[in-house]
Amino acid sequence: MGLDERIVGLFRKNLQPTLTYWSVFFSFGLCIAFLGPTLLDLRCQTQSSLQDITWVFFAQQSCLLLGTALGGLFKTTLKQSLFVLFLSSFTISLVFAIIPFCDHVVVLAVVMAVAGLAMGCIDTISNMQLVKIYQKDSAVFLQALHFFVGCGALLSPLIADPFLSDSNCIQSNLTANASANLDHIRNSLVPHNPRNLSHYGLPLQGLVVTNVSYAFWIMAFINLPVPLVVFLLLYREGMVPGCGKKPTSLLAADELALQNKQSQMSPVDSMQEKAQATKKGHEDLYRCCQSQNYHGVPFTYFAVHIAGALVLFMSDGILGEYSGFIYSYAVQEPLSIVHKTAGYLPSLFWGFITLGRLISIPISYVLRPGTMVFINLTGVMVTFLFLLLTPYNSILLFVGTASLGLFLSSTFPSMLAYTEDILNYRGCATTVLVTGAGIGEMVLQMLVGSVVLEQGSYSFLVCGMLFGCLAFAFYMLLLCFHRMYPSTHSDPPFKGEDSEDGECSYQR
């Protein structure tokens, strides 16, 4: 009970920033899941082909990866991080509002690329800041953070569903053949992989009839409180220019001391001080590769980063490929499930991912992050083996889908907490792991799409089993590097760095 009281006390002390990062991650989830269900209506809006519209997926995902890397550059100060989060969350609302006016696929791809950049920054910064605040207790709060992204990902398709076209939204003489297959086409679309759907007669010219614009405007309105919450945190920390509220904590003292120091300097000394500050800002980008207690960085330091990123490369790749291809596997032989019934499988998968993240919040009180990762990866392999051995039973496919969602749900936050714990919470692992996970989700999905096209839908289960085994193997490798890592010489955690960067208001 002492542990519970201590964690509750930390939560109360950091209530506003924690709720802010959770709300921003809800915004991230809201934006990440709407594109799939609405893509056919967006195809009508832009009057483009299936092959062209799937490039919008690619634009969003590739820029999301770029955003995760850029987000790591804004970790030096709290002011930078919160300002980027404010711009990113506001950008997402702006993107939702602008999408209905994009009447060309290139314009839509550019808008989604901007959204991807914002999402990537949110992904990296929110994870990184929660790790900074709670450090060894961060596992619980990371589980909650990823629960909120699941809530957003579940909500956006529900908002969009009433406004999706029941018939082809471009009215022409070719709509009769395509209208009966719209649900099948919608569930079969996978990012940058339209496969053999081109034989459906989807017209490119005609009267556009779609109400999907209302869905985007509703989502823009729902997301508006999120940048407001970030702005309130900026205001509380005294970081809003022109506002009367004074900076809180040691941040105000740091700024006052700096002003007094500059007023007593000669012009030459002031210029030298600015040059040194600029040089220090550039060095902060490489602080992760420096050590204060030993000369040079041991290879295990980089090995831990790489092994952790490879685990998430595989596990998030499984998440992307399973959600993308489970429908196609279900409707084809030998299962041949009815299209409408098979359409529930992706929703079931994401629903149990969200449920698993909720369940993982109390579980992470009693289990170490490394233990949770071991259980998750073992469960993934057992589930895929179960699905491979029961290829003719549709009921067991639903059971396996739910099981896989549960085991994958907490892999990312547990892996992030475990890796940062090994590296003594320097924050560098967050950017590497988030980027590795994003690359895996995009690359493995495209790779499996090519394999399925050549070998058949059953091969996607074989690929999933292979990826699960590789993820487990990389995790075993990470355990070895953990034992080899010189923990007795580990670098100081964020606390020492925060005192330099003005983030002391979050320290406990």
Strand content: under 5%
Helix-strand pattern: HHHHHHHEHHEHHHHHHHHHHHHH
Number of strands: 2
Identify the CATH architecture of the largest domain.
Answer: Up-down Bundle
Widest sheet: strand ordering: 1-2
CATH topology name of the largest domain, in short, is: Growth Hormone, Chain: A
Helicity, as a percent range: over 70%
Coarse shape: globular
CATH homologous group name of the largest domain: MFS general substrate transporter like domains
Average of per-residue pLDDT values = 78
Which structural class should the secondary elements be placed in?
mainly alpha
What is the level 1 CATH name of the largest domain? Answer: Mainly Alpha
Number of helices: 22
Helix-strand blueprint:
Layout: H1 2-13, H2 15-32, H3 35-46, H4 50-71, H5 78-98, H6 105-134, H7 138-160, E1 170-171, H8 175-179, H9 182-188, E2 207-208, H10 212-223, H11 225-236, H12 249-263, H13 267-284, H14 299-331, H15 339-342, H16 344-366, H17 369-389, H18 394-409, H19 411-422, H20 428-455, H21 459-484, H22 494-501
Antiparallel strand pairs: 1-2
Helix pairs in contact: 2-5, 2-6, 2-7, 2-11, 3-4, 3-9, 4-6, 4-20, 5-6, 5-10, 5-11, 6-7, 6-20, 7-16, 7-19, 14-16, 14-18, 14-19, 14-20, 14-21, 16-18, 17-18, 17-19, 17-21, 19-20
